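Its record is set out here:
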Amino acid sequence: MTSQPLINADRLWTRLMALAEIGATPAGGVNRQALSDGEIAAWRRVIGWALEAGLTPSTDAAGNLFLALAGQDRAAPPFLLGSHLDSQPTGGKFDGAAGVMAALEAAVTLAEQGDKPARDVIVVAWMNEEGSRFAPGMMGSEAFTGERDVAAIRAARDADGVSVGEALDRLHQAFRDLPHRPLGFAVESYLELHIEQGPLLEAAACTIGVVTGIQGKKTFQVVVEGAEGHAGTLAQQERRDALAAFARIATALHAEIGTIDTDIKFTIGRVAVMPNAPSVVPSRVSFSIDLRHPENAALTAAGVRITALCREYAPPCTVTVTPLVDAPSNAFDPQLQASIARASHDQGHPTMAILSAAGHDARHLAKICPAAMIFIPCRDGASHVEHEWAEPADVAAGASVLVQVLREVELARRSFTARHESGG
C-alpha cells in the first residue's frame, strides 16, 4: 500500500488556489456566483489549463462546461467526472471547485501518460449548483438529465431581476467560439469528488468517504398575504398582519416539523417583509423552507404537514405554499462504491462509508447512469463559509483515488468488450 499520490499534487493545489483568487473575498473566502463575471473568469482559467493538456472544451444550452480527453472510441458513452465552479456569496475555496480541479488533474494525468482511454473522459462543471443567485440550484445537472425544462430554467430571475436566460446568453457570448454539445448525452459513469461539508470524516480520522447516497430534500417558497395599515390607528383586532401570521406559522413548523426525529433537518431561510417600514402593518411576508431527511417516507409526510400547518396558522391572512425542489433520497452505484473503497485501501487511506447530508449534482446523474461520490474531510465540518478548509494532502488523496477508479473502470470495460467481441 502507498500513500503517494498518483497525480501531481503540487500542480493540483496550485491551480485550486489560483482558481480561488477569482471572486476572492477579504475574509479569505470566495464569492463566485452562477453565471457571474467571476464564473466567466473561472471558465477562462480552467479552459486554459485544459487546452494546455490537449483537452477539448465545449458547452451546452444549460451553460455546463465540458473538457474532453479524447478516447479511442469517440462514439462510446464517455466517463464523466466533475462538480461545479459557482459558490455561495460568502463561500469557501473548496466547495465544488475541489471536485472540478481534481477531475481536471485526473484527466491531465491520463493525458500525460499517453495511454489513450477506450472512451472519452470528460471533466464537467455544472451550471448553478449552489442556487444562491438563481433558485433553485442544480439547474445544469437537472437540465442535462432532463429533469427540468430549459425554458423554465431560463425564466428564473435573481434578486436584481436578471433572468437565467439573459445571464446564459451573456456567458455564451463570452465564449462564442466554444462548440455546443446537445443537451444531455449518454454517459458511461459519473464520479464526483467533494469536501464532506460535515464533521464525520475529520472526527473519525478518515481521509476518504465512500458516499453511499444522498439524503432527500424538499424546498418550498411560502407567501403570506395580509393588508397594510397604519401602525398608530389600526386596531389590533382589525389587522391582517402578515408578519404576525408568519410568526405563528414559523413557531408551529419548528415545534412540529423540526422535532420529528433526530434525522430531520428543517430550516426557514430567506425571509422578506413588505413594505418593511417601521410604522406600517406588514402586508406580505415571503420565506423559504429547506427540509431534509434520509428516509423518503418521513420526508414526504413532513412535506404534507408543512402545507397543512401553513394553512392552519395563516388566518386571517392567506397563504400560498409553492414546492420548488422534490429530490428523494438516492443510493449510489455499489460497484463504483466498491472501486472507491479498493482504491482507498490500495493507497493506504483510512476510509469509511458515509451518507451525504448535503445535495450534489451526482444525485441527478445517478438517475441516468452508474454514479458515485468521493468525500474528503473539511476542517470542523465547516462549509458555505469563508473559512472553509481542506488539507492539501487530503485533496491530493481524493484525486489519486479518482484516478485509480478511472483506471479500474477502464480496465473492466476493456475486459468486457474483449470478451463480448470474442463471443465469450
Observations:
- The first helix runs from residue 9 to 20.
- The chain has two domains: 9-214+329-421, 216-327.
- Residues 3 and 79 are 25 Å apart (CA to CA).
- The chain is about 35% helix and 20% strand.
